[in-house]
């Protein structure tokens, strides 16, 4: 039977033999072969990384598309506001026309700039009293006679206000009920 010392030495020898080598004896060619044998699919972190990169690219493309769409809508909104400001300026100051805007307006197209231009142009080029669009003392623009006649004709065709001569549906019933109620009131007064 072996002694304890012999057993200890035998165990240490087996442990030393089973210990891995430090790799000092391996060459760089062996290391490169080992790296080539490792497949990227074996590492689950690579799959996650690829998935997140793909999602990032997709979100970036969507963000760029959204930005282009927002810029287009903002440009359309600015154009509509400028057109609206021009219409308001033309209705406020009759001497400001499309030709005046095309020939003289050099601003940036903001509604405030258009309103300032129209006001300054109207001050520099007032309406003459002999012109068809004269300004009345109360500040209103004088309407040409033909337009005034058209306005009267429209009002006669479609009357507005309290009195409307065109009968409406149910008017006959209301008149009959009013007459009946008036008779009842008169009858009640006479019987008392």
- Which strand-content bin applies to the residues? under 5%
Helix residue percentage: 55-70%
The secondary structure category is: mainly alpha
Mean pLDDT: 76
Rg from C-alpha positions?
48 Å
Distance between the termini: 148 Å
Number of strands: 0
- SSE string, helices as H and strands as E: HHHHHHH
Largest sheet: none
**Low-confidence sequence ranges:** none
Q: What is the 3D form?
A: flat
Number of helices: 7
Keywords: Coiled coil
Protein name: Scaffolding protein
Protein described:
- With 192 residues, this protein is mainly alpha-helical.
- It has a domain of 76 residues.
- Helices cover 67% and strands 0% of the residues.
- It is built from 7 helices and no strands.
- Helix 3 packs parallel to helix 5.
- The model has no long low-confidence stretch (mean pLDDT 76).
Compose a concise summary of this entry.
This protein is mainly α and 192 residues long.
Q: What key attributes describe this structure?
A:
192 residues, flat
Please describe the topology of this protein:
Elements: H1 4-18, H2 28-37, H3 44-92, H4 98-104, H5 111-124, H6 145-157, H7 171-191
Helix pairs in contact: 3-5
